[in-house]
Fold this protein.
Amino acid sequence: MSNSISMQFADKKYHRMSAILSNHWDGKTILNIALDFINKLKHTHEYNVGGTPISRMEPDAVMCNFVAFLIRNSFTNEHDPYTCEHSLRLIDELSESDNDDNGHFIVWCDTEEIQEIR
């Protein structure tokens, strides 16, 4: 039995979207982790100040840092330092996702909202 979901980061102001993160086992829990991550990232990097992709909360940069955060904090494989324990995949097309259980969600970086797509 899986608890699959897919999600991506986006911003409303510039209409940008990240790659899609497909997760086979963790379901909607990952959405709460993503919102908390964005909130802390904004407070750490002076949101919208400066010239870095992460301070501007560009969706692709947020996704890269989010995946790194997941791997460092809870998705590590203690027996193999080169792989993730969980089934995380970055994909280009929604049709490549295994999200039958919970659907696809957009996490809006600029408004900290979650939108269910399907």
User: Anything to note?
Assistant: The longest helix spans residues 29-44. Residues 5-116 form one domain.
